[in-house]
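Blinded run. Sample ID left blank on purpose so nobody reads anything into the name before looking at the predicted structure. Input follows.
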Amino acid sequence: MSDAPTTLPSDVDAAAAEAANPPQTTISCSRGLASWLAMQGVSFGLTSYQSGRLYLIGHQDGDVVSFHERVFNRAMGVAADSQRIFLADLFQIWRLENILGPGQMIDQFDANYVPRNAQTTGDLDAHEIGIDRDGRVIFVNTKYSCLATPSVTHSFKPIWKPHFISRLAPEDRCHLNGLAMSDGAPKYVTAVCKSDIINGWRDRRAEGGCIIDVASNEFVTQKLSMPHSPRLHDGRLWVLNSGHGELCTVDEASGALTTVAFLPGFLRGLAFHGRFAFVGLSLPRDGSFSGLALDAALEKRDADPWCGVLIVDTQTGDIVEWIRFEGEIRELFDVFVLPGVKTPMALGMLDPMIRTMITIEDWDEADRPQPVTG
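Blinded prediction complete.
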């Protein structure tokens, strides 16, 4: 045996090796996903800040799942419908427009979302997005612990902050993260806690997570663990109690919590189509996601955590379909539904087609310059 000391690779060496040879991603899905999407007349999308991607999932003829991805650095919150996608990334908020009309196709795709505008905000750690009744973008400005809207001349314009936040500062004090819209206005937000010091939420992850009524500034509940993605749907308030891995409803008057389903992962991203909930799952990571009740819940069920999207029947709590990622993609942020779209695609800024895919809006005689008379 040699007396030479054994040298173990350092963390730096391991990181360099992983950067040179990034892990591959394996994507699997439930056998019935394509036919289920076809039957529901819907497709869906998701974002991952960890991989810096926007993903669009649809279906093709022959029960084939369509999967399309585009690069958006630190892709985060999304507000979307069949014609338009708003997307927050590292320092911008993008507007992507579907350039295809009814019956139009590009290859097998019946929707093509093209970037048409980017509002530069700077790195605000923007989380979820909503669109108000006037078409204005409202976003959760997590770094400054407030709700904000883009400004024509500045990085942002604050429009609301929790009553316990004493001043706007780039300190992510309470980890404000989720936004529920109602009738074109912000209704509820979620925060990890009510801390008013820099990164104070990191010591309050296990309990004290809150839902706040924006209009009244009152707490609906303070009994959650790392809540995310509040939504109003079918007359009920929904939330992801992420530290417990639970999809829940919340009584708006009493704050009472009802668990609809336990899902095996750190939950973030929630969208609805009828009675079905699309829920995003991430792998728990050391630090922010560790030491939560979710760890014990997974151990109790002898289960490993997932990264992917589970489609839940909210009437029964059953998982009806799923898509799962293994490898490079470990964390998701938002999930959204595209009703009436079969096979969506998007253009990214790194796609050569961004330069050549030129479309012309219909001519309008009213826009023709008129001669000056008199």
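Unblinding after everyone has recorded impressions. The domain at 26-349 is CATH 2.120.10.30 (Neuraminidase).
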